[in-house]
UniProtKB/TrEMBL annotation:
BP term (GO), one: peptide transport
Protein name (database record): ABC transporter substrate-binding protein
Record-linked Gene3D superfamilies: Dipeptide-binding Protein, Domain 3, Periplasmic binding protein-like II
Pfam entry (one): SBP_bac_5
UniProt-listed InterPro entries: SBP_5, SBP_5_dom
Domain Solute-binding protein family, first and last residues per copy: 16-295
Gene Ontology MF, one: peptide transmembrane transporter activity
Length: 377
């Protein structure tokens, strides 16, 4: 409720909401003038949107009314490019001055070794993982556990994607203060253990075709991936690993929107993901993805203890009590093999040192173009 005379806005929540300041500060949302929302973008940053060419460019101009100091550029053009090598080529040719997230290891290494370029890297708040669909064959505990044992995330993070990710086993990155050192990796990499778990559960190859069966049916996992942030490389590596222990796996790389639609429709066994886990400085929203009462619950995972702890977390204000709940919730997800964690994404900026200064990337995606990025002196 807005009171223009008093200059106040009153919010009424349906339940206790302990992270309300964080939610109100969430950059995805803003109070806007609905009279112009269809034609203009309203914000408080140093630059204004002048024009948008869908899927091609965004043109920014200086915000003459910026509240926090001088704005260094009169205009900025953002080019929307998914292909990592194309980004690197554009930077090397001088067509652009700054690029974010070059994910091709060879290109990134070449830029790091060249003094004409500055590469800024930081541990982001992004989790790289693959969700399981519990409504299909992956509702079988032994099959999920075997997959966890079989996948060598240390090698995949450090070799397959050449350090673009830091390996880990919990849904919250080890760089964040959420008790990672208190957790136990229930299913550390162990190929022999993976085979042992499958055999003990009767998930075996009965006809000699090289593939194991579950309930009399050959296992062939429908694994969806999209190419953002090396996710397709993870999917291919996981598929090769699973094939080696007799688990069939077909990887389909789709554009993000198509993959998301298939995820919502349940048309998958596994699907890759890369998401910010603390967008409001609080992991509760992300942890809600595993809450069975959430209509958007990924993979239809359900655990009664987890649900009860999540509901308690939403109404707990004490930071120590919050941490205890979050640690226990993480361990439940690990023990249940609720999702396949690959690791934690390391975000990068690469810039031309003779053109740009101050191009240091931040852990949160929303704050890329700031007044700290300025023309080189």
């Amino acid at each position: 409720q807005a009171d223009d005379e008093a200059g106040t806005v009153t919010l009424v929540c349906g339940s206790r909401t302990v992270n309300l300041p964080g939610i109100l500060a969430y950059p995805w949302y803003a109070i806007v003038d609905t009279g112009v929302i269809d034609s203009e973008v309203i914000g408080t940053g140093p630059y204004c949107v002048a024009s948008v060419q869908e899927n091609t460019t965004v043109n920014l101009i200086k915000n003459e009314y910026y509240w926090n100091g001088e704005v260094p550029y009169d205009s900025i053009t953002i080019y929307l490019t998914e292909d990592s090598s194309t980004k690197a080529m554009a930077l090397k040719s001088g067509d652009v001055d700054l690029v974010e997230n070059i994910t091709t290891a060879s290109d990134l290494e070449e830029l790091k070794e060249n003094p004409d370029y500055y590469v800024s890297t930081t541990a982001s708040m992004r989790l790289g993982n693959s969700y399981f669909n519990f409504n299909g064959v992956l509702g079988n505990d032994a099959l999920r556990q075997a997959i966890q044992y079989a996948v060598d995330d240390e090698t995949m993070c450090n070799v397959t994607v050449a350090g673009m990710y830091t390996p880990g086993y919990s849904v919250l990155p080890s760089s964040l203060p959420y008790g990672y050192d208190q957790l136990t990796d229930t299913y550390p990499y162990d190929m022999d253990k993976a085979v042992e778990v499958l055999d003990a559960a009767g998930i075996v190859d009965t006809n000699g075709d090289g593939y194991r069966e579950l309930d009399g049916e050959k296992i062939n996992l429908n694994y969806l991936a999209y190419s953002s942030r090396n996710l397709d490389e993870f999917a291919q590596a996981v598929a090769i690993t699973l094939e080696s222990i007799g688990i069939g796996c077909t990887v389909t790389v789709q554009d993000y929107d198509t993959a998301l639609a298939n995820q919502s429709a349940g048309n998958f066994d596994m699907i890759t993901s890369n998401a910010i886990v603390v967008p409001t400085g609080d992991p509760a929203g992300f942890l809600g993805n595993f809450y069975s009462g959430n209509s958007g619950a990924y993979g239809i995972y359900a655990n009664d203890e987890y649900d009860a702890l999540y509901e308690q977390l939403l109404e707990t204000a004490d930071s120590d009590a919050q941490l205890a709940l979050i640690v226990r919730m993480q361990q439940i997800l690990i023990d249940d093999a609720a999702t396949l964690v690959h690791g934690y994404y390391n975000s990068t900026f690469a810039s031309r040192v003779f053109a740009v200064s101050g191009a240091d990337i931040t852990p949160i995606d929303y704050y890329w173009i700031t007044t700290k990025i300025q023309p080189a002196e």
